[in-house]
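pasting Malto-oligosyltrehalose trehalohydrolase for the record, 571 residues
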Amino acid sequence: MFTVWAPEADRVRVRVDGTEHEMAAGAGGWWQAEVTGTEYAFLLGDDDRPLPDPRSLRQPHGVHEQSRVYDHGEFGWTDRSWTGRQLPGGVIYELHLGTFTAGGTFDTAIERLDHLADLGVTHVELLPVNSFDGVAGWGYDGVLWGAVHEPYGGPDGLKRFVDACHGRGLAVLLDVVYNHLGPSGAYLDRFGPYFAGRTDWGAGLNLDGPGSDEVRRYVLDNALGWLRDFHVDGLRLDAVHALVDKCATHLLEELSVEVEALSTTLGRPLTLIAESDLNDPKLVTSRDGGGYGLHAQWSDDLHHALHVRLTGETTGYYPDFAAPDALAKTLREVFFHTGTWSSFRERTHGRPVDTRVLPGHRFLAYLQDHDQIGNRAAGDRLSATVPAGLLACGAAVVFCSPYTPMVFMGEEWAASTPWQFFASFPDPELAEAVRTGRRREFSRHGWAAEDVPDPMDPATVVRSRLDWSEPGADGHREILELYRTLIRLRRERPELADPRLSEVVVETAPDGSWLVLHRDALRLACNFGAEPVTVPLAGTAGELLAAWGAPGPEGSSARLPAHSFVLVSTG
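structre below
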């Protein structure tokens, strides 16, 4: 049977394997037809243009073409003993499927999973893998949310990847985008009142207007489908601040309730992580505490404070984070903007986190991520401009913080490859609009047009692929070993994974050039400056756990050369 929601249509047909069939109108704007077949598309009213199924599970010919029936029951899973992984105590590895390997498929990515298991991460987070127009792209221009991008390997490819991850003890998180649809192939508005307004990136969803109940159901069913049918362990919810929802029960809270019920049914933990620009702890506050009940959210403020401390950059949204206490504040309180003035927004921003109540594992800490690299004009990583000692200091802060650490692919060996913005829209006009828009955006910040990579050039994708010969090479091998050590210590030393924010103590130089982070009996001392310093360790130095460029401590202090750190256990 074929079904589709088209409440405003007076006639709907389904074309199945080349033959058209009239569909019968049912309750609530749903249409149905008792037909069997494989390839299908819908025709609305008297328009003879076939449209893909809004709830398609497979688009083998692209987002503009007919859909294909897909049976979840036909895949042979081998992860029946998988009981999942909770997020507290975990380490996340963020990767883009198309540039993680030269092949850019789920199957070639599987060949590199042993590297991740050896690194010590617990969760693999995939950037969006749903269908978008073209072959290459970041995935945030998806238009058919339930269909897996065919060039990556389609739905069976994703299932093989998840199955292989579970076999290595790795949980899988999937980045999903519910705040907008891409500019090419978004036919939802032909079927019903799916759209309402626009975001900075495209058409937004109707979450609270007439007909919005089914639109909300569309989102909820899609989210549950990834978790249930693809055995995914959690979702990263893109830019939830762009979800416009004035209903008494916000979509995010509704999603939290339904995911909790599914988790109980499946008998394994399921995780919801939000990306939000609101600096609002309500997202990760429990529902009985008046929040939405999500499990975690990204925390850009720590990234920004670290970035400024390591690079000295103070343009764009970075100026406020040049404050000497910015890094210390974000380590203690999560957010830098807590109802305080944001010069970038030209208004007050944020709300304080109650550190007595909220645990640190509900906030993600990262030195780099796909946005903070890819949305730079040249897509340059920190390793392109920051010396190894400062990279090591930044990594030490992230892994010794009370938050859930996240690593962006290749960061663990200071990859020399950039990660640039790219797309591959077949429509020449749209491709040119994206190309010129990108160059125009960065020209306002002083970049010459010729210095901004062409996002439509296949060479931009090639440049952005990881070079897997690097992890064993000089200059990369040492950083990789440091990451392995820091992740291992986080697992072995309970003080480092302790999520109690109220227990975190930070000492810092008046100018912010050095920092000592107290994690119970452990001390992380970092010198971000270009001159040697002596820092206090508040106790008799004991075991040296990790270091970069610095000798062991001497008594209750440590002499740190420029761009170095020590992590010690004190007595």
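The CA atoms of residues 317 and 345 lie 8 Å apart.
The mean pLDDT is 95.
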